[in-house]
Amino acid sequence: MPATARHILHVDMDAFFASIEQRDNPDLLGKPVVVGGGGNRGVVAAASYKVREFGVRSAMPMREARRRCPALICITPQMGKYKAVSAEIFTIFREFTPLVEGLSLDEAFLDVTASLSLFGSAADIAHAIKKRIRSVTGLTASVGVAANKLVAKIASDLEKPDGLVVVPEDRVRQTLDPLAVQVIPGIGKETLRRLHRVGIETIGDLRRAPDAALGAIFGRFAQRTRDRAGGIDARPVVSARADKSISAEETFEVDLTARKAMHRKLLQLTERTSRRLRAKSLAAGTVQLKIRQADFTTFTRQRSLHPPSNSTDSIYHATRELLDIWLAEHPGESVRLLGVGGSKLVNSPQADLFSTTPFATGSDVDELLDRIRDKFGSASVGRARSLDGD
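RESULT FIELD:
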């Protein structure tokens, strides 16, 4: 690559949640393992490579996954464990560069342009990161190396698992052109059908397509789409990105019809959301309630908090009122999903008896529950009124 080029890595852990479970229980190695909700309404959060042979993929409904693979082994997610491993991996990333843009617990872009003089070529750094991850966590990662984020991300998926693909600038078109057009991020099922109808099957087809064909499908985004097909991407690696919202939601195995049950689930979701806010020292200026009916019709309601808050009681009081108003407007409706979110986030200082700062921080009860959950797990303690059953 020219000396002025950027050197970008896209690191993607291989079947992250499922691989951790297989690492911790060797009896699961080589078996069709998924991590996710166990009920018929649950979804697959991660699928081992063995179960992928049956066509099972992440985000697939668990009912469909079981139909495709009757021998499927389903494991309940343990997010605390996955987050701890993720923290180890991101620590490794920052040993090589401070420019790390996390996309999820198991995926990140790294700009290593300024690190070449210390660690060698971008390919050398990719090898070193893969080796460190395996040494520290016992897991494998796939890495794509290119001059921009788009090509690096595509490259990381070409030789999974445990892959390493380097795409020099002078081989970008040669690498991308034969690939299926849906490899480009952002091309959904309907767009793909329209592309196929006009004979566009590969990225090369898309890059060479007439302006009229692209304009009819992508409108004002036609040129940007053509640029992507040519491997052009000027986006920088952004090392820190502020949270815009924090939320929690749940799809229920059986639709909720009783107001008491809805209130109980709402409190559980509020506890999860408010705890996440407190963990990041944030307070929400607006709370949102998400409701999905049995027929999949979805409603959202929101309310401002004055002052902004991360208190479980404050957020629950606001969302419960929103829910009760919705129930009055939709009598007799059953609820398939509830969600609680906070947005318009602001930094929340630590509680201070003498502070006049206009924030409503978590109560002593919130602080105590957070400490217990941090030590013993999220299911170790909860408010009595949030517990299922009588």
